[in-house]
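Assemble and predict.
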Amino acid sequence: MSHTRTPVVTGWFAGEGDDFRLLGTRCAACTSVFFPREDTFCRNPGCDGGALKEVPLSRRGRIWSYTDNRYRPPAPYASDPDVEWQPYTLIAVELAAERIVVLGQGVPGVTVDDLAVGMEVEAVPGVLNEDAKATWTTWHWRPTGVTA
Amino acid sequence: MALAADGGDGMTGEVAVLGAGMHPWGKWGRGFVEYGVAAARAALADAGIGWRDVGSVVGADTVRGGYPGYVAGATFARALGWQGARVASVYAACASGAQAIGTARAQILAGLADVVLVVGADSAPKGFFRPADGERPDDPDWLRFRVLGATNPAYFGLYARRRMAVHGDTLEDFAQVKVKNAALGALNPNARYRKRVTAEEVAESAVVADPLRLLDICATSDGGAALVLSSMDFARRHGAADPVRIRAVSTVTPRYPSTVLDLPDIATDSAVSVEPPAHTFRASVALAAYEEAGIGPEDLSLAEVYDLSTALELQWYEDLGLCGEGEAAKLLREGATGPGGRIPVNTSGGLASFGEAVPAQAIAQVCELTWQLRGQAGERQVPGARVGITANQGLFGHGSSVIAVR
Ligand SMILES: [Zn+2]
């Protein structure tokens, strides 16, 4: 069994620990930011198009809204049907500098009772699932303990 | 009211609704073609039109019936018996039915067909809607399941929590939407759920996606709906002197940057380089319909809105301009959107009572308007209904709003 750490999607995030960042792209012509990254065209209808360069997104943002999955999501979400389902949170986070809302899973152990709209969270590396091929990595949102 | 039939040609741009029909919603376990054909036959009978007199068939596609579902127009035409009609099939997620109506209207107004049959039907899977199989990292719908496990109810939960935080909506408000719609659905022979529901029953149902419970979220259903549309000239020749008329079909797309997280997206557009538009996507769908029809929310007798969740019904009140932003729960509590209220919403019972049969649902909304505007809605009837609106939103930037008058 290989345990190579492999991002669940290539190029959406990078770094470890405090250096972890979500990665988007920015249009050189109009400064629009895209996440998930756009690498071939700028989606601003008022832009003739410019080079799209990779940019790290703000590490911290504030909760726009949140929910949880009380039931096992269908495939392609990976989960072992023989293991009792453990709900996890989904958090939509507003990044002020980029004026964008990005959805992600909350870190394991956090429940909806720990969350509030407006609360500060930060992007941290996380593990989505492990299988025979790899340990699939992702981003998680973790409360910083700072409340609006 | 400025909307009385003028006895002449009517407003340019109007088409007549000659017939409406449905196959009842449920979990019947049969193929979508059967539901669509039953609905089509019911609509033709209601219109008093023979199948051979239909010049064009527009089918709203289902992605769950294999190839026949992707070419729904032809599938229904073949099942009814090939008779040479022009055919089209459209797919626009939850707005497929409205786009089918829009396509039919365009053909009629362009003079390509006098009578068009619009049909949508679905045979729904068990449990959550899920993406198509295979490893497809270029598909946002596949990605949201693979990377986040973000089901449709998870998005509904996000919207509901946001309303609670920003507008002060409560779980009790959400429950009261279900109570209202279940009571109306109990009166509708085409609804799947025909039992009244109490607020306590909503509160006791299992949480699916916090803060929403099972009874806050619409199910997925089998069902079929159909309309027979015609030119105003044909309607008059056919003896329909005062038919229900479709005055607007809005199918506009969002404007960049769209700053409300929409299914199946993982993020919104960034508003860093371009200021967001004045109206959200949902509101802009309704505004385009009002503009096309030359009316405003104050002219409405009733509205059929896409209550994928109880909280989303409240959101539509604001997006349709039935009240100001943040005032939807107040409007509900006052009884304005219930039977006998100023602007009854989801007199059919809504998705809460039907469950979603995707390509049929936006057509079913117009069926309800038709019966209401004709005064044929039985115990659900809104007295003296003259103007109705539908509103709907689906994945991938699709939305629709249809305005019908009589
Ligand atoms: Zn650009």
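Chain B touches chain A through 48 residues (CB under 8 Å).
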